[in-house]
Design goal:
- The protein has helices spanning about 45-50, 70-80, 95-105, 110-120, 135-145, 165-180, 190-200, 215-220, 265-280, 295-300; strands at about 5-15, 15-30, 30-35, 60-65, 80, 150-155, 185-190, 200-205, 210-215, 225-235, 250, 255-260, 285-290.
- It is an alpha/beta fold.
- It has two domains: about 5-220, 3-Layer(aba) Sandwich (Rossmann fold); about 225-290, Alpha-L RNA-binding motif (Alpha-Beta Plaits, 2-Layer Sandwich), CATH 3.30.70.1560.
- The strands form three sheets. The protein has a six-stranded mixed beta sheet, sandwiched between helices. A four-stranded antiparallel beta sheet has the order 11-12-10-13, with helices on one face. The chain has a three-stranded antiparallel beta sheet with strand order 2-1-4, with helices on one face.
- The site of adenosine-5'-triphosphate has 14 residues, from β2 and α1.
Length: about 300
Amino acid sequence: MNPVIEVKGVYKSFKNVQAVNGVDFEIIKGQSVALLGPNGAGKTTLMEMIEGIQKPDAGEIFVLGRKWKGNEDTLHQQIGLSLQETHFLDRLSVRETLVLFASFYCLDRRRVDEIIQLIDLAEKSRSYVANLSGGQRQRLAIGIALLNHPKLLLLDEPTTGLDPNARREIWSILLRLKQQSQTSLILTTHYMEEAEQLCDRIIIIDHGRILKKGTLSQLLEAENGPKIIEFSLEAPAETNGFAPSRFQIQWAAGQGKGSVILSDIETELPEFIEFISINKLRLKTLECRRKTLDDLFIEMTGRRLDD
Ligand SMILES: Nc1ncnc2c1ncn2[C@@H]1O[C@H](COP(=O)(O)OP(=O)(O)OP(=O)(O)O)[C@@H](O)[C@H]1O
Ligand SMILES: [Mg+2]
């Protein structure tokens, strides 16, 4: 199947910053892909090169089988995008804003009504854009991106800075879209939950490079992959006098709390409990959870995704 996006050996620098440092990937029709990475990872720079807004220093990008140069009009008709920061005309209403953008694509008002329903802004259709909440503005930006029935939707941080409710509203719009259409989606985010909820594939980037890519279960080594044990103690531990063990505990909170990765929970959890008791520690709480993308990112970089 022909890829909808091909990124081949792409580099981009600004003065002394190497923002994108040799990136290759492909996206297949109908796929949803997250570019997941912390601040400054190079997500926006990469997206803007895919969107034809910035030019790579080296490498090639094909969007729907075409390069940007010489194909600008065709590509603009077929993609929908929302930038990291959207500026609207504050003195237009929601409906007027959509009508204006619809006119660029020669779309009629029926399409505007469909979009207002899709983004759930019927109650606000006559409100000035200036009076919308952050989540409503972001829904409007997604609505504009969807007006022309794009084959490919590119969203740069669609939910950053929104509260959990507003974020979930956007997720449900995008999940509905995914069920109802063959639109391919690429979005950037630093929320691992967003990547997990919305995307079939995840590309983790940092310092302009891809650290890992794959499906969620490939990245997290599937269901029977390692588990994280998080525990707290009745009193902080004197960790330097411990009996030797194979557990690599990450201590936190003045050594009153810690976590450890167990690859085989059935055999290792009893051993871990024994280790606690040999060292005369008293457990206050103990929780077992699956590995997350955040754990994976910490393993690879020593930093958290949202730092
Ligand atoms: N126009 C520019 N001029 C100079 N440096 C830039 C420019 N655009 C981006 N950079 C630098 O390139 C690097 C990557 O920036 P980019 O905006 O692509 O990151 P990002 O992953 O989108 O981050 P965020 O999550 O904060 O949006 C950063 O170090 C940034 O300071
Ligand atoms: Mg960005």
